[in-house]
Design goal:
It holds the Pfam family LtrA. The chain is mainly alpha-helical. About 75% of the residues lie in helices and about 0% in strands. The chain has helices spanning about 25-45, 50-80, 85-105, 110-135, 140-160, 165-185, 205-230, 235-270, 275-285, 290-305, 315-340, 345-355, 360, 365-395. The radius of gyration is 22 Å and the shape is globular.
């Protein structure tokens, strides 16, 4: 889906064209920093005792962390990490990301300046590199506009790190600018926007990178619950809670990798260049945020259950244990809608059941709440698998679709 002759410059730093691209070992190494970042985010929410302020801070920093990784993934979809200059700029982004991750526990306290400066530096540095190494042309102009938007928000990130009283408004405006930039296609006065037809990406490589990020988030959930269990006496209730949490992670993996992901890939594989760029922006840049956020919240809920399997969840605990999977399902449903499919009723029922159960499970133990989540997710996985198999036999659609199989080709008509 790339038009390398007219959009992507023919320089040695660009990935080879004419062949399917896969994630490189260096990209996997790059992701290790974000394993640490996701862990820090979970710990921050737990350290704040699931307060609304802690939840707001964690959500804000999660979006910033994801945005930094997401922008780098777009860049690495074009630029070859096997070349030394690209690898060095990715090392710079890794270091800045590591500093940003270190600051997370006190990201709204005395390390706010480190968090804000690290984020702004990696965004500007990466985009400036692309502008510096590409020749004049359409691609170069696109990244000049992307760099301009990064420079526009940078003073707000730095100022927010310096001024305690105005941190929230300054950072909200800064993050709002960063989030809005792709939606307005990096529009600048006197220049205009960057056409979607010029955002040509390798759909398979792009999807693989975001699949790996989902694996990172799910892996952090397993690590967190395992470490928590290791710190207890490993009684029968803890073992049961650990098992339920692990199977819940398996159910989340199943719903994404055998459900939503194949449908997205199929849609991208049958799309025009303009459509692929728009799909990459909407589905991965934006709609994967609730999926990742749901996994992080689920990990926090699982840690609570494993640590105190026989305690009542109370409202905050129930919100974490049930709200995480609900947010995850909401993200999957949004992705299905974006690719032109009607969401099946089992997914809607599962989402409603999770939300409706919060006040009920607030008075239940952690094990009971976790068992309810696994029951709902397991039933949804079975229902979607059966419906997808039936649809596949009738219309040859991708297996595991979370969408109405009769609408599978709707987006291509």
């Amino acid at each position: 889906m790339r038009d390398d002759d007219t959009v992507i410059p023919a320089i040695r730093l660009i990935r080879p064209s004419g062949q399917e691209q896969r994630a490189t070992f260096f990209e996997l190494f790059f992701d290790l920093v974000y394993v640490f970042a996701i862990t820090q985010l979970s710990h921050h929410l737990l350290a704040e005792h699931l307060s609304w302020q802690g939840a707001a801070e964690t959500a804000f920093m999660l979006v910033a962390v994801y945005w930094a990784w997401n922008y780098t993934t777009w860049m690495a979809n074009w630029f070859d990490p096997e070349t030394a200059p690209v690898r060095l700029v990715l090392v710079f982004v890794m270091l800045a990301s590591l500093l940003m991750s270190v600051a997370i526990p006190r990201g709204f306290g005395d390390l706010a300046l480190l968090f804000g400066c690290s984020y702004a530096a990696l965004q500007i540095g990466r985009n400036a590199f692309v502008v510096a190494v590409t020749p004049p042309g359409v691609f170069h102009q696109n990244f000049r506009q992307i760099l301009a938007w990064s420079v526009l928000s940078a003073p707000l990130w730095v100022a927010g790190g310096l001024v305690d009283d105005a941190r929230w408004p300054l950072w909200l405006v800064a993050l709002g600018l960063d989030l809005a930039a792709p939606l307005v296609r990096y529009w600048l006065p006197g220049v205009g926007d960057t056409p979607m037809s010029q955002w040509s990406i390798d759909g398979h490589h792009f999807a693989e990178r975001f699949q790996l990020f989902i694996i990172i988030a799910l892996g952090e959930s397993i690590v967190l619950t395992g470490a928590t269990a290791a710190g207890t006496d490993l009684g029968a209730e803890v073992g049961l809670a650990l098992g339920l949490s692990f199977l819940g992670s398996v159910a989340l993996w199943w719903l994404y990798f055998t459900g939503a992901s194949p449908v997205i890939l199929h849609r991208m594989g049958h799309s025009t260049m303009t459509e692929v760029g728009a799909l990459g922006r909407d589905i991965y840049t934006y709609l994967h945020l609730p999926i990742v956020g749901g996994i992080v919240l689920t990990a926090v809920g699982d840690e609570l259950v494993v640590a105190h399997p026989d305690h009542e969840m109370e409202v905050v605990g129930a919100v974490a244990v049930l709200g995480g999977p609900a947010l995850y399902l909401l993200g999957l449903m949004a992705c299905g809608i974006r690719v032109g499919h009607r969401v099946g009723w089992p997914a809607v029922v599962a989402l409603v059941a999770m939300v409706a159960a919060v006040p009920v499970m607030a008075n239940a133990s952690g094990v009971v709440t976790s068992a309810f989540v696994l029951l709902v997710l397991g039933a949804l996985a079975v229902a979607e698998h059966r419906r997808a198999r039936a649809a596949h036999s009738r219309a040859h659609v991708p297996s595991g679709s979370l969408s109405d199989p009769r609408e599978h080709d709707h987006g291509n008509r």
